[in-house]
Amino acid sequence: MLSDLGLPIKLHVRLSDFTTLYRFARVCVLNLSITDTLFLLGLPMIMTTAITGRWVFGAVLCRVYYALTCVNMFTGTFTIMLMSIDRFVAVWWPVVCNRSASAHHTRTNNLLYSS
């Protein structure tokens, strides 16, 4: 758990270096850093619920927390899936992968896959 406290620092480092964010794998790592940070923000609610045995934050926050947790979980899962596909393509078709690794193609692929 203590190692996860460094995630906001990693996120800040990734956001402060805009020149390297155009590579697909780096954008995926940034996305995973964001999802891990959002998970950490909800951790106090999980701990409070586990200690008290009931949800004490109200019905509206329950629905918001549930929706954000579901989106966060699916975002992390799909990001890891996209990273796996990217590595598969890089191993099986290295020549094609090098041609399509430009900044324009990476931005286009990120927009297509994120929608």
What does this structure look like?
With 115 residues, the chain is mainly alpha-helical. It has one domain (2-114). Helix content is 79%, strand content 0%. It contains five helices and no strands. The chain has helices at 7-16, 24-52, 59-92, 94-99, 103-114. The longest helix has 34 residues, at 59-92. It is elongated and about 55 Å long. The two termini are 32 Å apart. The mean pLDDT is 75.
Give the end-to-end Cα distance, rounded to a whole number of Å. 32 Å
Mean pLDDT: 75
Topology pattern, helix = H, strand = E = HHHHH
Q: How many alpha or pi helices?
A: 5
Count of folded domains: 1
Oligomer: single chain
Q: How helix-rich are the residues, as a percent range?
A: over 70%
Please identify the structural class as seen in this structure: mainly alpha
- Number of separate strands: 0
pLDDT below 50 for ≥5 consecutive residues: which ranges? none
Percentage of residues in strands: under 5%
Shape: elongated
Major β-sheet annotation = none
What's the alpha carbon Rg, rounded to whole Å? Answer: 18 Å
Describe the secondary structure blueprint for this structure:
Elements: H1 7-16, H2 24-52, H3 59-92, H4 94-99, H5 103-114
Could you name the key traits of this structure?
115 residues, 5 helices, elongated
